[in-house]
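Lab notebook, bench 4. Still working through the backlog of constructs that have no structural model yet. Next entry is a single chain of 254 residues. Request: give me the structure tokens for it.
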Amino acid sequence: MSIHPMSSARAIDPLHQAKIHLAAAHRLAVLHELEEGIDNHFTVTLPGRDGEYLILPFGLHWSEARASDMIVFDESGKTLAGEGIVELSAQCIHAPIHRIRGTPVVMHTHQTWALALNMLQDNRLLPANQTAAFFHGHIAYDDTYCGTADALAEGERLARVIGDKHVLFMKNHGVLVTGDTIAQAYRRLYKLERVCRTQVLAMSTGRTLEVLPGEIVARVQTPPANDRHRGERDRLFFEAMMRVLDRCLPGYAD
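Model written out:
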């Protein structure tokens, strides 16, 4: 079995690892059709430095993201390290959520199937399959689209809406996920798109969805004591996806 070259030498430097993982997440979003070219945003709090965030500078296509491209910005929108600037809505949405929620990773997209569901008057994700059950109770809903974000107050409002949840459905806009690691946040984003697609496809039949009962949802969300990979699934998923990038879209670690 081949092992992805996330070497122990790289892992020693948390900042360098964060840049590599962030670049990989952008390129994976292209492979998984979650991106809009140069728009939308993924941000990460600098390891050990609250109030400073990593982001891909605006204007680069996500397919060309490299670790060396990442810039550091603060809530004022000032670039503190690297070349390039942070896009205004990224600054206004992400920085306040990082600050208020204390979450290390924030990812916001307009991905197709999640947005399709969020265009409906009733946009609730239903626990009608096993994967969707994992999201049940962890999604906040912002039912009022306020236009493009051009002030920090909008990010502060969104932070209040998301509360203690790790997914935000943004009506008529898109979705936002948070995570403790890039691997965790990206896995959530990836799986969210798939369950939204499944629900929209099932709804298109015009037939009634079979929603799982609460006790089954609770059972699905409770890891079994004999799960050999408990706590490792996010890492294993992301490392596998980076191996796909190594074959299909290499160069993200440069």
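Notes after review: The chain has nine helices and eight strands. The longest helix spans residues 182-203. Flag for follow-up if needed.
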